[in-house]
Design goal:
Layout (H helix, E strand, L loop, with lengths): L2 H13 L29 E3 L15 H6 L2 E17 L11 E18 L8 E6 L10 H13 L2 E5 L3 H5 L7 H4 L1 H4 L10 H13 L14 E7 L1 H17 L4 E5 L30 E6 H4 L13 E6 L7 H15 L20 H16 L13 E2 L2 E2 L15 H4 L3 E4 L8 H5 L4 E4 L28 H4 L3 H18 L4 H13 L5
Parallel strand pairs: 4-5, 4-6, 6-7, 7-8, 8-9
Antiparallel strand pairs: 1-2, 2-3, 3-5, 10-11, 12-13
Helix pairs in contact: 3-11, 15-16
């Protein structure tokens, strides 16, 4: 079975919100940064939940980590009447959709809030993440991916349970109500056709609190809507259909969407335009960040950078990766009292991608924060080289050509791929996690010069690069990494803090000679 078909099946599962077994042009256009209109969205009632049986929120971060960074974590319930939307005319591929209010229903959801305890350390921007429910429960993918940048730069963070599945799911890894009935028993979600307005009302709760202020005494300047994968697909629909009506966010960071977004209605079979671009007439900017994996099902929706829409395509990255799993693991262990089961991608197969996606997302967040404040747009990134829906690879290294390229790709020591060959049940999950193939003389069991070999998946047969030939001395390797890292900083694709981390890791390695 081809990788494309496998990934397509996975995204079909995302659209249906089917639970997996395992959770987890630089311009300054002032017209693009007008403040959202106040009062266009209902302000929900805000309350504080009971302590519940666990005594902490679902997806609570490690207390010691937050304390060390000077952050507090709080949780609030919010609710009222949510509105669904109906199409007003045909939806076209340009994303310039019009909607009218539809049915209404009562709801109650929750938001998980983190911010600097010292107001002087708050940078004025609040990230509002649409929790991802592709694994059957709320998952804070963008918090986990960008956590280092959020904490060191003083952002506030709000995670929103916008979808029904995250609240109502049962099973071994249950949703909110089943996980802690005492804390979340009053939650009520009328269906995902209301998720778009619930996400708007979460922002309005921050702008005009009807009850305790979720941000305490903090005064923010900008609200940034973010979401990854299925949530990114919902944000695509939100930006195109709802944002022009709601106008409660100051910008959007869409992480890993695809060419076809999620439906506006509750009907999963509702046909959405293929492809769907991001509308370019919004008064606030949208930044789309795509991994190598995502391009397989996004390439037809490519659009040129404009005054309000920019896109990065990241070489050597995957839709989900080892950073996401490792960084998020303690949270899941605390919630469920046991480790999340390992990702079994089959015997004698390559490890999942351990590449630089989180560094790119950190830089994207930093660039987006400048943009929504009236600064320059993010740097224009090179496009990944594609043949149809397949990334073009360097036959010598197996690395994708083109795209935004960080030191892991420009000074490589291993093959990092956004694709992986998988069969059977493993394909549903593992196809999203890419692959890593160390360069060790083709001694790994997956180094068979076939579809399962990331460094040499197609003919002709090619041996893995020899590190001692690429980098005759350790100093040579470190100097090349240092040059690549600071070049990426100058180009706007890497934060200085992450450049220092990368150079330190290279210095502490044994690579070279």
């Amino acid at each position: 079975m081809s990788y494309l078909r496998l990934l397509g099946r996975r995204f079909t599962a995302l659209l249906g919100a089917t639970a997996c077994a395992i959770p987890m042009l630089a311009v300054c256009a002032s017209s693009a940064h007008a403040a959202p209109r106040a009062g266009a969205v209902a302000s929900p009632a805000i309350t504080v939940p009971a302590a519940g049986s666990h005594g902490f929120p679902f997806q609570a971060e490690e207390p010691a980590l937050l304390a060390a960074k000077g952050y507090v974590e709080r949780e609030f319930l919010f609710g009222g009447t949510a509105t669904a939307y109906n199409r007003n005319g045909a939806f076209g591929s340009d994303g310039r959709w019009q909607v009218t209010p539809g049915t209404q229903a009562p709801y109650q959801s929750r938001m998980l809030v983190r911010y600097p305890a010292d107001p002087a350390k708050f940078n004025g921007t609040v990230l509002v993440e649409w929790f991802n429910v592709s694994g059957g429960i709320d998952a804070q993918v963008d918090w986990t991916t960008m956590r280092e940048e959020i904490l060191r730069s003083g952002y506030a963070y709000v995670g929103v349970s916008a979808q029904q599945l995250g609240i109502n799911a049962a099973g071994e890894y249950p949703g909110l109500k089943a996980w802690d009935q005492a804390r979340y028993g009053t939650l009520n979600h009328p269906g995902d056709q209301y998720s778009y307005d619930i996400f708007s009302q979460a922002a309005q709760a921050l702008r005009t609190p009807n009850g305790p202020n979720p941000l305490g005494t903090l005064k923010f300047r900008k609200l940034l809507g973010v979401g990854e994968s299925q949530s990114a697909m919902r944000l695509t629909t939100y930006v195109n259909a709802v944002a022009p009506v709601a106008r409660v966010y100051d910008g959007y960071l869409i992480h890993s969407n695809m060419a076809v977004p999620t439906p506006l209605s509750a009907d999963p079979s509702e046909r959405m335009p293929n492809p769907t671009l991001i509308r370019t007439d919004l008064r606030v900017p949208t930044f789309v960040v795509l991994t190598e994996t995502d391009m397989t099902l996004h390439v037809s929706a490519r659009q040129p950078d404009s005054a309000t829409v920019h896109t990065w395509e990241l070489a050597g990255t995957s839709h989900a990766d080892q950073w996401l799993l490792t960084t998020g693991q303690p949270v899941y262990e605390r919630m469920f009292g046991r480790p999340v089961p390992p990702r079994d991608c089959g015997a004698n197969t390559a490890p999942i991608n351990d590449g630089p996606a989180h560094y790119s997302l950190n830089a994207a967040l930093s660039a987006m924060n400048r943009w929504i404040r009236g600064g320059p747009a993010p740097a224009t990134g090179a496009l990944l080289a594609m043949e149809g829906s397949t990334p073009v690879r360097d036959p010598a290294t197996g690395l994708a050509r083109g795209g935004v390229r960080l030191p892991d790709v420009t000074v490589p020591t291993r093959t990092l791929s956004g694709q992986r060959h998988a069969e059977g049940l493993a394909a549903l999950f593992c196809g999203l996690f890419g692959a890593t193939d160390p360069w060790n003389g083709d001694t790994d069991p997956w180094d068979r010069h076939d579809a399962g070999d990331p460094s040499n998946p197609t003919a002709p047969q090619t041996a893995e690069p020899v590190l001692s030939q690429l980098y005759p001395t350790h100093a040579d390797y470190v100097n090349k990494v240092r040059a690549a890292a600071w070049t990426s900083v100058l180009r706007g694709f890497l934060t200085p803090a992450d450049a220092r981390t990368i150079v330190t890791a290279a210095s502490n390695s044994t690579i070279g000679g």
